[in-house]
Design a protein that fits this description.
Shape: globular
CATH topology: Rossmann fold
Largest sheet: 7 strands, parallel
CATH class: Alpha Beta
Helix content: 40-55%
Number of strands: 13
Distance between the termini: 33 Å
Strand content: 15-25%
Mean pLDDT: 96
Bound molecules: uridine-5'-diphosphate-4-deoxy-4-fluoro-alpha-D-galactose
CATH architecture: 3-Layer(aba) Sandwich
Number of helices: 11
Strand order of the largest sheet: 3-2-1-4-5-6-11
Low-confidence stretches: none
Radius of gyration: 19 Å
Length: about 350
C-alpha cells in the first residue's frame, strides 16, 4: 500500500515506518518536527534499506496534504501526529485542541476530498480514565480527566461520525497502553525533549547518570508492592499492530477500535529491577507523593486485537529494557541525538 504516515519522525512513528517499509509498503511521512528531528528520516533508511519520502509540514494544512495524497497516490493514512504531554494539556488545553483536534480535522478534509479509503488512528488507553474493572476492554466506559485524553476522544468521535456518513471508509482506532523500548539496532528510540514525563525515559536517564534519582510517584496504591501498575508494550510490537490494522482494513470497512497492550501489568518497582538487570546499572529511587491524575492499575484486555487483527504482543519485558538501554548507550557514545 501507499501509506501517508503523519508524525513519522516521532518515537512511535519512526518504528511504524520501519515496520511498514520492511513489509514492502511505500511510506510518505508528513511531520512538522515540533517534537522530533529530521535525522530520524536517515535512521529509518539505515534500518529499512531505503529512504521514506519526507515532507516537513502540518497535517492540518489541507492543501499540502491533498497535494501529497495526489502526488503519491496515497491509499491509506496512519495518523500519529499530535501533542502528547498530559501535564501540558492541563495547562494549555487550547494548544491540544488546536493541534490534535483541528489538525486531524484538516487531515480528514483532505482525505475526503481525495477519497482516501483507509485510516489508522493513534488513540490512547487514557480515554478509559480510572479503570472500573480489569483487564480494560474496548467497551469500558470512557471518562477522560485531561485535555490530552479529551482530544483523543473527540477525534475518535469525529471518526465514528465520518465513518457512518461514508460507509466505504475503513477506520481503526488503536488505543495504546504504555509503549516503551526501541528498535533492536539502537538507531531509533524515545528521546524526549527536556525532563521526561514518562517512567521509562526517566529511568534510562537516571541509569546513565544524566539524572540523580527517580521519583516513584506513590508507594501506597492498592497494588502488590504499593506502586502503580501499567501495561508496558514494546514499541516494535506496537508498530506491528499498525501493520496488522492496515491488513485488517484491506478487507474491512466501518469504524473499529482495538487495545494495543500485552494484557499484563508491571509495577514501577518491577520495571526498575528489570531495567537494572538488563543495563547493569543501578537506578537510585525514592518514593514520593502520588502524581495527580494517576491511576493505581491499568492493563489491557487484548482479546479483540488477537481475534480482529490477528495480532499479539510477543516481546518480553527484558527486551523492552535492553533495547531502551541500547538506544541510550548509542546516544551517549557519540551517536548524535535526534533532538540535537
Ligand atoms: N512514574 C513514576 N515516576 C516517574 C514517571 C512515572 O513513578 O518519573 C509512574 C507513574 O506514577 C505510573 C507509571 O510510572 O504509575 C507509568 O507512568 P507514565 O507517565 O510512564 O505513563 P502513564 O500510564 O501515566 O501514561 C502513559 C502516557 C499517556 C497515555 C497512557 C495510557 O503518558 O499518554 O500511558 O495508559 F495516555
Amino acid at each position: 500500500m501507499k501509506v501517508l504516515l503523519t508524525g513519522g519522525c516521532g518515537y512511535i512513528g519512526s518504528h511504524v515506518a520501519v515496520v511498514l517499509m520492511s513489509a514492502g509498503h511505500e511510506v510518505v511521512i508528513v511531520d512538522d518536527l515540533s517534537n522530533s528531528h529530521r535525522d530520524v528520516v536517515g535512521r529509518i533508511a539505515d534500518i529499512a534499506g531505503q529512504l521514506p519520502v519526507f515532507y516537513q509540514g502540518d497535517v492540518g494544512d489541507v492543501a499540502l496534504v491533498r497535494d501529497v495524497i495526489r502526488r503519491h497516490q496515497i491509499d491509506s493514512v496512519i495518523h500519529l501526529a499530535g501533542f502528547k504531554s498530559v501535564g501540558e494539556s492541563v495547562q494549555l488545553p487550547l494548544k491540544y485542541y488546536q493541534n490534535n483536534v483541528c489538525g486531524t480535522l484538516g487531515l480528514l478534509q483532505a482525505m475526503e476530498a481525495e477519497s482516501v479509503p483507509r485510516l489508522v488512528f493513534s488513540s490512547s488507553a487514557t480515554i478509559y480514565g480510572d479503570p472500573q474493572y480489569l483487564p480494560v476492554d474496548e467497551a469500558h466506559p470512557q471518562r477522560v480527566i485531561n485535555a490530552y485524553g479529551r482530544s483523543k476522544l473527540h477525534i475518535e468521535g469525529m471518526l465514528q461520525d465520518i465513518s457512518a456518513s461514508r460507509p466505504s471508509l475503513g477506520v481503526v482506532c488503536l488505543r495504546y497502553f504504555n509503549p516503551v523500548g526501541a528498535h533492536g539496532s539502537g538507531l531509533i528510540g524515545e528521546y524526549p525533549r527536556g525532563t521526561p514525563n514518562n517512567l521509562m525515559p526517566y529511568v534510562v536517564q537516571v541509569a546513565s547518570g544524566e539524572r540523580e534519582v527517580l521519583n516513584v510517584f506513590g508507594g501506597d496504591y492498592p497494588t502488590p508492592d504499593g506502586t502503580g501498575v501499567r501495561d508496558y508494550i514494546h514499541v516494535m510490537d506496537l508498530a506491528e499492530g499498525h501493520l496488522a490494522a492496515l491488513n485488517f482494513l484491506s478487507s474491512n470497512s466501518g469504524w473499529h477500535a482495538f487495545n494495543l497492550g500485552t494484557g499484563r501489568g508491571f509495577s514501577v518497582l518491577e520495571m526498575i529491577r528489570a531495567f537494572e538487570k538488563e543495563s547493569g546499572h543501578t537506578v537510585p529511587y525514592r518514593i514520593t507523593a502520588r502524581r495527580e491524575g494517576d491511576v493505581a492499575c491499568s492493563y489491557a484486555d487484548v482479546q479483540a486485537a488477537a481475534r480482529g487483527l490477528n495480532w499479539k504482543a510477543t516481546r518480553a519485558l527484558e527486551d523492552m529494557c535492553s533495547s531502551a538501554w541500547r538506544f541510550q548507550s548509542r546516544l551517549s557514545t557519540g551517536g548524535r541525538s535526534p533532538a540535537d
